[in-house]
């Protein structure tokens, strides 16, 4: 998946006040990092997973490979950026055929939403 084009903010000035610069490669790496972080965190939303199922995206071989690729977010140097850790649970589950097939059932999806709400109420 290619990150969407868009502006990437310039880096903040260095402590001595001189402007910091990024190479085009660093800018592209930052854009990719931000896009992948946003996508992996969207997996924490069962309604989003349901929409991916309804569009047939979850059955595409490229998408299944992409989920495997996203496993790197579990590494300590990346997981620290995750705000919604439930996304990593769903990243595991969405790689299982049975779970993906159940995402077509609105009752199952609503149960996932309710379980998430209960978790956050008592967390």
From TrEMBL:
GO biological process, one term: regulation of DNA-templated transcription
Compartments, record wording: Nucleus
Pfam assignment, any one: Med31
Positions of the UniProt region annotated as Disordered: 1-26
UniProt-listed InterPro entries: Med31_sf, Mediator_Med31
Principal cellular location given in the protein's record: nucleus
One GO CC term on file: mediator complex
Keyword Ion transport (UniProt): no
MF terms (GO), sorted A to Z: transcription coregulator activity
Keywords, sorted A to Z: Activator, Nucleus, Transcription, Transcription regulation
Biased composition (Pro residues): 1-16
Signal peptide range: none
Family as reported in the entry's similarity comment: Belongs to the Mediator complex subunit 31 family.
Quaternary structure and interacting proteins, as annotated: Component of the Mediator complex.
The protein's role, per its UniProt record: Component of the Mediator complex, a coactivator involved in the regulated transcription of nearly all RNA polymerase II-dependent genes. Mediator functions as a bridge to convey information from gene-specific regulatory proteins to the basal RNA polymerase II transcription machinery. Mediator is recruited to promoters by direct interactions with regulatory proteins and serves as a scaffold for the assembly of a functional preinitiation complex with RNA polymerase II and the general transcription factors.
Annotated protein name in UniProt: Mediator of RNA polymerase II transcription subunit 31
Species of provenance: Papiliotrema laurentii (Cryptococcus laurentii)
